[in-house]
Amino acid sequence: MGQLIVLGFDSAAEAQDVRKELVALQQDHLIALEDAVVVECNSEGKVELHQALNLTTAGAVSGGFWGSLVGLIFLNPLLGAAVGAGVGAASGALTDLGINDGFLREVGDTLRPNTAALCLMVKEATVDRVIEKLRSHAPHAHLLQTNLSHTDEAHLQEMLDQASKKLG
């Protein structure tokens, strides 16, 4: 199971930017994310979840592929694709991978209006290199919650503080 890290930001735009940069850092093999969700509390205080992966769409695409394959076997590819896409979309909508939506809503309930949190499920990371790459966001990030050990949490907070000081 991965490590849960929840960072708070003063805006949803910055949380989205950090998530995009983390996804790019996966290409460099500096971090492996299981899930990355931006939780936004809008100006009316309504909580919105911005999932990294639309499971319904992913299910429909994979279901469509498998349905087409089965349809080709039984000489009716259009019917197979339609049935496969429908089954895939339904299974994707019912699947909750990564961070639990109930937990994400609880995080959202703690946010002030016009702020956001970035909830990460991290499989593995080269933490010092990731913090270095995200240094420009450090002054705006606040460690809200984690399931790291006390020692690892203190180390992460120290690295965030140092990155913030280097900019200031």
Question: What are the SSEs and their pairings?
Answer:
Blueprint: E1 3-9, H1 12-27, E2 31-41, E3 47-50, H2 55-73, H3 77-94, H4 101-109, E4 115-125, H5 127-133, E5 142-146, H6 150-167
Antiparallel strand pairs: 1-4, 1-5, 2-3, 2-4
What would your notes on this structure say?
Helices cover about 50% and strands about 25% of the residues. It is built from six helices and five strands; from the N terminus they run βαββαααβαβα. The chain has helices at about 10-25, 55-75, 75-95, 100-110, 125-135, 150-165, and strands at about 5-10, 30-40, 45-50, 115-125, 140-145. The protein has a five-stranded antiparallel β-sheet with strand order 3-2-4-1-5, sandwiched between helices. The chain starts with a strand and ends with a helix. The relative contact order is 0.23. Residues about 55-65 and about 80-95 have low confidence and may be disordered.
Identify the notable features of this structure and list them briefly.
168 residues, alpha+beta, five-stranded antiparallel beta sheet, 6 helices, globular
